[in-house]
Amino acid sequence: AKYLYQVGKNNSLLLISSLKNSITCHAWKGVSCTHFRGITTTPFPEFQGDSRFKSHADLHNASLQNPDHFWGTLAKSRLQWFQTFNQVKDCDINKGHIRWFMDGKLNASVNCVDRYAEKNGDAIALIWEKDEPGTEEYVSYRQLSQMVNKMANMLKSFGVCRGDRVAIYLPTSPVAVAVMMACARIGAIHSVVFAGFSAEALAGRIIDADAETVITSDEGVRGGKIIPLKQTVDAAVANCPCVKRVFVYQRTGNPVPMGKLDISLDKEMASQSDVCEPEKMGSEDLLFMLYTSGSTGKPKGIAHSTAGYLLYAGITQRHVFDYREGERFGCVADIGWITGHTYVVYGPLSNGATTVLFESTPTYPNPGRYWEMVQRLSLDHIYLAPTSLRLLLKEGNEWVKKYDRSSLRKLGCVGEPLNTEAYDWYNDVVGDGKCEVVDTWWQTETGGIALAPRPSAPGAKIVASKPMRPHFGIQPALMDKDGKELTGSNVQGALCIKSVWPGMARTIYGDHKRFLDTYYNPYPGYYFSGDGAHRCEDGYYQITGRMDDVINVSGHRIGTAEVEDAMDDHSQVAETAVVGFPHDIKGEGIYAFVVTMEDINPEDADTLRDQLKSIVKTRIGGFAQPDRILFTPGLPKTRSGKIMRRILRKVADNKPEELGDISTLVDPSVVEILVQKHEMI
Ligand code: WTA
């Protein structure tokens, strides 16, 4: 036991992984392993031996008080540069002006692929956990490098240039990763659109980014079902005059109609050379953009930089999860969301890790899928969303116990609050009480994990449902209603961050004013997250949820305005208001209050409900369809015409006794109607 511990402390990572491979399963499960699992902070070799950094607190303080030294040192040692930077940062948070690693030149694909392909090309980069269990495919760093280079040459040969935007509408797959890396290699900015978005939503994002190139596949496969991706792209592209070419990858090989713009990706790639000189990108050149929902109807293209994002992705993946060389990292997010970008692709690959690409669902073919995968692939880490835990825990413990999970060391989760029941189940049943549960708070805009219980001082506790501490570079602040910062503990307010860190978003693509208005102008001198939080003793934070009109459904951000805009288009609809309500599995469900032009007959109500759901499916995607739709003659409004959403939320939450003062409404009687109707649907 002592030996293992010292190995960890001395940071001899190779020795640890070879040890892991050589010790028997029995020993791995035994005392020494428990002890080994207890080490909670991967040391920073860069700061070892520096007498200023004796503790975790020293390091965290340094990241805030001397960020130039902290991040400058890490950027030099963790990233590979064509030309190093000569200034660590140029930031003015008051103006939302964020720049890191000035004048540096690098390429993200070199950092994520080449350097590991050269060092140990046989090491596994990707494990593609395809939809059918047991059909996984392995891609080594050498193979990934070949794919990326060929793909990059293919894009170039069709005229895709540095700075161009490339829309990606693909299932989570090695090809998708290779496309992202190929864009990075030639300096094109990728915009991955989750392959569950509708044709209209995809078209909106393609047009906003003014993308000439789209990359998709014939079909997707998820939960045993075929998803007609190319068909969706065809419908989208028909409304996008900017699109000049669509590359089609054969995921299933089923025949799909190929039109004038369509190019077979598989065929074109095959004839390309596997050597493509990487572009020398500036630190601040955009690496990618990713659309996310805000409080208005139009999605925001959150833009991330090359050097700062990549550094932050790598540091957080390695240190929050205590990732060690040779381990297998299983983040089950889709590449269409930020979690997929940072913890399936850029974080793990920039650390030379083995990362899992999960194509399936938590319940396919049965609720044991995750744990069967953990056993089959011998995963060291799993990173998932609380919604899947809530779903799976209802199915019973047998689905977990059936499988050997002793390879797991860390259990991560992200996307929504982890309730105590889900935490306990994750910790006690999935982890057998031997793994740490690492709940991480962050956002598309933060680029990587901002609050998490790890890394931390040895012995620091993890507490269910309020487990979070700021990561390096992050200085959280809670603001009161008057915009003043709250001090001390046991306070609750708007969650802001008053420091700058390399991974933070740089702009909203094409709309910097909206970027400033959303994140920097609400509290001058602070980045505003849109979430509320509570600060407990010992600096622990607990997230209380969104403070704006964004709903978090199964960890997916959906703007209420987007759903309202879609339903408002129905000819029978006069007005709508959408709010979130507590949902057992999804965390939050979508509740729509709909005012119709004319009274509708009760027998027509279900038809109209179906039509409204179908409009939302067409405009946004199936995942944004309302769970409940209530038809009402009016909405609760103030004299100035503002809808009182607070009241709608109480109605939707079954709490009519907490409605509070409704006397300021133009027509208070409408509330009674809502309460009655709510009880009936
Ligand atoms: C929510 C996902 C509670 C939060 C990485 C945030 C969380 C939004 C947590 C960002 C957590 C994320 N506990 N809430 N651990 N993690 N959230 O941009 O409301 O898809 O603002 O990024 O998810 O969602 P996004």
Automatic annotation (TrEMBL):
GO biological process: acetyl-CoA biosynthetic process from acetate
Protein name in the entry: Acetyl-coenzyme A synthetase
UniProt GO cellular component terms: mitochondrion
Domain Acetyl-coenzyme A synthetase N-terminal: 57-112
Location of the AMP-dependent synthetase/ligase domain: 114-506
A molecular function GO annotation: acetate-CoA ligase activity
Signal peptide stretch: none
Keyword set includes Ligase: yes
Keywords: ATP-binding, Ligase, Nucleotide-binding
Domain called AMP-binding enzyme C-terminal: residue spans: 562-642
Catalysis: reaction(s): acetate + ATP + CoA = acetyl-CoA + AMP + diphosphate
EC number: 6.2.1.1
Source organism superkingdom: Eukaryota
InterPro entries: Ac_CoA_lig (IPR011904), ACAS_N (IPR032387), AMP-bd_C (IPR025110), AMP-bd_C_sf (IPR045851), AMP-binding_CS (IPR020845), AMP-dep_synth/lig_dom (IPR000873), ANL_N_sf (IPR042099)
UniProt record similarity statement: Belongs to the ATP-dependent AMP-binding enzyme family.
UniProt xrefs under PANTHER family: ACETYL-COENZYME A SYNTHETASE, ACETYL-COENZYME A SYNTHETASE 1
Organism: Mizuhopecten yessoensis
Lineage: Eukaryota, Metazoa, Spiralia, Lophotrochozoa, Mollusca
